[in-house]
Design goal:
With about 300 residues, the protein is mainly alpha-helical. It folds into 2 domains: about 210 residues, no CATH class; about 100 residues, no CATH class. The protein contains 12 helices and 7 strands. The strands form 3 sheets. A 3-stranded antiparallel sheet has the order 4-3-5. Strand 6 and strand 7 form a beta hairpin. The protein is elongated and about 70 Å long. The protein starts with a strand and ends in a 27-residue tail after the last strand.
Length: about 300
């Protein structure tokens, strides 16, 4: 079966988030106790952080791998080196080499398996190790725990209004059950999309593809869900060089639960579309009405675009 990057991302986002739910609820359970056990709470937060870090690391490597598979596919389609390539990027889709489970397998094992299958991925392993570091994992989960704390406190306030002074932790967890599942899903999907997009972005800028992959195109899932996010809808199709400052404001993900992905644009496609000035891609214009959600980029255009 042949998948595009967006197909692969959709498959990953559809995976079960039960492990994320379990760890979010573990934090909530400790916070719901009359006197939280600090060591247990810290361990629960760190456990979520390790899961987030491992998921991001594997997704980042999968994003890189997809770019390599696409470029390899181009060579197989044309039977030539990319320097003789005449626009096969439009059919640059790659066969699925495996079905790496996220986050059900140990991230170290998943990454080692990918590197064994394609040694070119070893080049960026240091960045992956940073994602898996204990300090980074705890920091990533700490901000999530604050949101969980706010939700637990809000639920405790509701119990107090109903005359329950000391609700059992189990009752609090039950009360926030639906919320914790939705929140865990958001944490999973947002981190997955962010890391996968970052991996693709990084590999597209690699020395191996320099001069061939000259741009990236932001591809949204154009359905009713995206239509309800007009800034995302307007950003669909934005095509720019990886070095264009517009990506500082309209990069992926554009918000929580964003499902967008980058599509590679090669030199020949960019020339056909009139996007080149010599050997460099022309600076992109800001798409009318495009913006990322609050916290993911500014809605105000960069000063250099003259539209502050």
């Amino acid at each position: 079966m042949i998948l595009t990057a967006q197909d692969e991302l959709e498959r990953m986002l559809a995976r079960s988030t039960s492990e994320f739910v379990r760890r979010v609820q573990a934090i909530a359970f400790e916070q719901a106790k009359p006197i939280p056990h600090s060591e247990k709470l810290a361990a629960a937060i760190e456990s979520l952080g390790r899961l987030i870090g491992g998921t991001r690391a594997v997704a980042w490597m999968l994003g890189r791998r997809r770019v390599l598979l696409e470029s390899d596919r181009m060579k197989r389609v044309t039977g030539k080196d990319w320097r003789d390539h005449q626009g096969a990027a439009l059919v640059a889709m790659a066969y699925v080499a495996d079905q790496t489970l996220i986050p059900r397998v140990d991230p170290d094992e998943a990454i080692a398996d990918m590197i064994e299958r394609d040694p070119r991925l070893a080049k960026g392993y240091k960045a992956v190790q940073d994602l898996l570091s204990r300090e980074r994992a705890f920091a990533m989960a700490k901000s999530e725990s604050l949101i969980i704390t706010e939700r637990v406190q809000a639920e405790m306030g509701r119990f107090l209004k109903e005359g329950v002074l000391h609700p059992a932790a189990e009752d609090l967890i039950s009360a926030i059950g639906s919320w914790s599942q939705a929140y865990a899903s958001t944490v999973f999907r947002t981190n997955m999309t962010s890391a996968y997009a970052s991996g693709r972005f990084r590999e597209a800028m690699s020395d191996e593809l320099r001069g061939f992959i000259v741009g990236l195109e932001r591809m949204e899932v154009m359905d009713t869900e995206t239509r309800e996010r007009p800034g995302h809808w307007a950003a669909h199709g934005l095509t720019a060089s990886p070095h264009d400052p517009i990506w500082h404001h309209l990069s992926i993900p554009g918000g929580y639960n964003c499902r967008a992905a980058y599509r590679l644009v090669d030199l020949y496609e960019a020339r056909r579309r009139g996007l080149m000035d010599g050997n460099e891609m022309r600076r992109a214009s800001w798409p009318a009405g495009a913006f990322n959600d609050d916290g993911f980029a500014t809605k105000v255009m960069h000063p250099s675009y003259g539209l502050m």
